[in-house]
UniProtKB/TrEMBL annotation:
The species this protein was found in: Vigna unguiculata (Cowpea)
Stretch forming the signal peptide: none
Keywords: FAD, Flavoprotein, Monooxygenase, NADP, Oxidoreductase
Top-level taxon of origin: Eukaryota
Family, similarity comment: Belongs to the FMO family.
Example of a GO MF term: NADP binding
EC code: 1.-.-.-
Known cofactor(s): FAD
Designated name of the protein: Flavin-containing monooxygenase
Pfam families noted in UniProt: FMO-like
């Protein structure tokens, strides 16, 4: 095992693992500490670089997915940017702020060791036995990282005072369903591919896989919908085959961000609209007002549902969700449907099969009603296991702290685990704009590292994280996702107060109440 006395170990202050959106945001905000960034691939961008389909587009407008100090060119363009445009934006940002010099590409962190036990851990930030927290940069290393470079078997060890993990929840490790004996992939004679592998295909490879094939797509979230569209595109014409989507739980999908002529943002992205929803630590008076206003909150959800049922043929195809729209929005499960999605369904190129349970047979997929769907190719849009990815590199006992009955990682301010010292996690909560969420969390983290404020004791941090998860559980049956979409402004208010900023970011009370909040509202003032 490596030791701090080993002269081959390179010692530095801050390590950042991952150069995706969150890693770039953290690098920018911590750049004055000259962090070392380890990126396993050969480029920045994370999932936008190595886990996007040829047709993948952002689900937000440009102005809603931008860094506070780096506006998009043509930011008022109403088109959703492609994954190529997003990569170009991220690369421009990294080069503009000279962040690339900090990044070590093709450098995979394969193991993390805690070495703080050699020192006075009672002064370590985030340490359990004490209610007082010392500096996040104590002056000596607390973590060692084992890094493989250029896919070699040689490991170089590094030591750091603080580690920021930005490996993200998506990509790298596929979540595969479990099956009974002789009901799994081993009995299927066709080809099975998870979205993790499909996204590595170029356009010609994807077309070759799908064209003229009977394809079954398992799932009905954004990635599955995009897959079905690519399949339909590859099978145009009389000889083209249909793509069948296995739909377990239909979720609300929207065609665009206008509802009965009103901008979608007024319903959920203003301070007034979020006042209707539960939030952590809201106090008795606010809780009572929230309860009294709950009919208005449900009315907003019904209002949006009425438009979606009028605009989209959800009833026709048996895709009307059984839960309110607000539960999908609260859990960050709302998806933008491609413009021609239901046109392809009308042409018979996309079919839908509702099924709570399914398995494989030699010729395809079998559902719980004993229906058999023939398939040449089965595409699994069944998600990713971001927590497993973290557990692979974190040491015992810290990896066990990632588990919680609610299924999410309990993070104070969405950034630090109260029981894991001198480590932060950026990019593990969801909101309307994950980029903006990662940036404000990185600003908060930078202020913490610079000792502009101190976090409370461990018990208080644990209590706050549990309360936040309880709010999610009360708000949606899909609570096993750390989503702050309906109280994102309140969440940012708390971080602003910690940093020492005013929580009210707009120039008048009218705008404060009724104007949507964006990343531009949190731009640092010199």
């Amino acid at each position: 095992m490596a030791t701090l006395d080993n002269p081959s170990i390179s010692v530095s202050k801050i390590a950042i693992i991952g150069a995706g959106v969150s890693g770039i945001a953290a690098t920018k905000q911590l750049s004055h500490h000259n962090p070392i960034v380890f990126e396993a691939s050969d480029s920045i961008g994370g999932v936008w670089s190595h886990c996007s389909y040829n047709s993948t587009k952002l689900q937000s407008h440009r102005r809603d997915y931008e860094f506070s100090d780096f506006p998009w060119p043509q930011r008022d363009n109403s088109d959703f940017p492609t994954h190529v445009e997003i990569l170009e934006y991220l690369q421009s940002y990294a080069h503009h702020f000279d962040l690339v010099k900090n990044i070590r590409f093709n450098s995979e962190v394969v193991e993390i060791l805690y070495v703080g036990g050699d020192h006075d851990v009672s002064s370590s930030f985030g340490d359990l036995p004490t209610t007082h927290h010392g500096t996040p940069l104590p002056g000596y290393p607390l973590w060692q990282l084992a890094v493989k470079t250029n896919h070699s078997h040689t490991i170089q060890w590094y030591a750091f005072e603080f580690v920021v993990v930005c490996t993200g929840k998506y990509g790298d490790i596929a979540k595969i369903p479990e099956f009974a004996c002789n009901k799994g992939p081993e009995v299927f004679k066709g080809r099975i591919m998870h979205t993790l592998d499909y996204c590595k295909l170029d356009e010609d490879g994807a077309t070759k896989l799908l064209k003229g094939k009977k394809v079954v797509v398992v799932g009905f979230k954004k990635s599955a919908i995009d897959l079905a569209m690519e399949c339909a595109k590859a099978n145009q014409g009389g000889e083209g085959e249909a793509c069948t989507m296995i739909v377990r739980t239909p979720h609300w999908i929207v065609p665009h961000y206008w509802i009965w002529g009103l901008p979608f943002s007024i319903f959920y992205s203003t301070r007034f609209s979020q006042f209707l929803h539960q939030r952590p630590n809201q106090g008795l008076l606010k809780a009572l007002l929230c309860l009294l206003l709950s009919p208005l909150r449900r009315g907003v959800s019904k209002f949006i549902e009425s438009y979606l049922l009028w605009k989209l043929p959800l009833q026709k195809y048996g895709l009307r969700p059984e839960h309110p729209f607000e539960e999908d929005y609260t859990s960050c499960q709302m998806a933008i449907v491609p413009e021609n999605f239901f046109s392809e369904a009308d042409k018979g190129k996309i079919l839908f099969k509702r099924a709570s349970n399914w398995s494989f047979w030699s010729g395809g997929i079998q559902t719980e009603d004993n229906s058999k769907l023939e398939a040449d190719v089965v595409l699994l849009a069944t998600g990713f296991d971001g927590k497993k990815k973290l557990k692979r590199i974190l040491p015992h006992p810290f990896r066990n702290f990632l588990d919680h009955p609610f299924g999410v990682i309990p993070l104070y301010r969405g950034t630090i685990h109260p029981l894991i010292p001198n480590m932060a996690f950026v990019g593990y909560i969801e909101s309307v704009s994950n980029l903006a969420s990662s940036e404000i969390r990185s600003m908060w983290l930078s202020a913490l590292v610079d000792k502009k404020f101190e976090v409370p004791g461990v018990e208080k941090m644990l209590s706050d994280t549990v309360e936040e998860m309880n709010v999610m559980k009360r708000s949606s049956r899909f609570y096993k996702r750390h989503c702050i979409s309906t109280y994102s402004i309140n969440h940012c208010d708390e971080m602003c107060k910690d940093i020492g900023w005013s929580s009210w970011r707009k120039k008048s009370w009218i705008r404060e109440a009724f104007s949507p909040y964006t990343s531009q509202d949190y731009r640092k003032q010199n």
